[in-house]
Amino acid sequence: MHLAFIPYGIKNFVDFFLEDLNHKFMPLKIYNEKEEKYILMQCQVRLMPFGIVEFVFPKEFLNEVLSAFKIKKESEQSEYMKRLNKKILGVNPLNLLRKVLKLKKVPDYEEIPHPNIPMPEKFMQFIAIIPIGIREDGEFTEQNGWRHEAI
Fold first, then answer.
1. DSSP code of residue 114
2. Rounded Cα distance, 65 and 88, in Å
3. What is the tens place of the pLDDT at every residue in 86-96?
4. Which of 35, 69, 73, 127 is most buried, judging by how many CB atoms fall within 10 Å of its CB?
């Protein structure tokens, strides 16, 4: 699963935040016909055009990641996000970005009050996350028969 977003804030804090994200590990489910197990996978941070960053993580953690990033549901968005979603010359800029980058809209999610993903809270108060969208990964089958999300 990929979460595309634009981090906005003081450069040093944003850099620290992205570096911290690059050092997160999450369990990735791998399975075959007989059993299921988890292996630790290092999450990835990918830089994209227009200052967009993609955070790559296992799909089972979507609710936790969105909660840790404090992504607001559409009904709870700040005034700044509402202005970003306004149409300019008949086109919504975030929808255009989603379409160009082949992303889906960030879904509504079940908020987790204390997500199990440690975030640098001291720096998060100086960073705004502008969510762009998500991209789901397909499934990959290894030669030995194990299947997992194709991250």
1. S
2. 30
3. 666 777 777 88
4. 69
DSSP string, 32-88: -SS-EEEEEEE-EEEE-GGG-EEEE--GGGHHHHHHHTTPPPGGG--HHHHHHTS-B
Q: Tokens in use for 28?
A: 């990735």
Smallest CA-to-CA distance from 51 within 10, 6, 105 is with: 6
- What is the pLDDT, as a whole number, of residue 3? 92
Could you read off the pLDDT of 35-79 as tens digits, one per residue? 888 778 888 899 988 889 999 888 888 888 888 888 776 655 556
| Interatomic CA distance for residues 2 and 103, integer angstroms | 9
Torsion of CA 87, 132, 141, 117, to 10 degrees: -160
Place of tokens 């369990």: 27
Place of tokens 């919504």: 92
For 127, residues 6+ apart whose C-beta sits below 8 A from its C-beta are 7, 8, 9, 10, 13, 14, 17
pTM over 0.90: no
With beta carbons less than 8 A apart as the criterion, state whether 19 and 43 touch: no
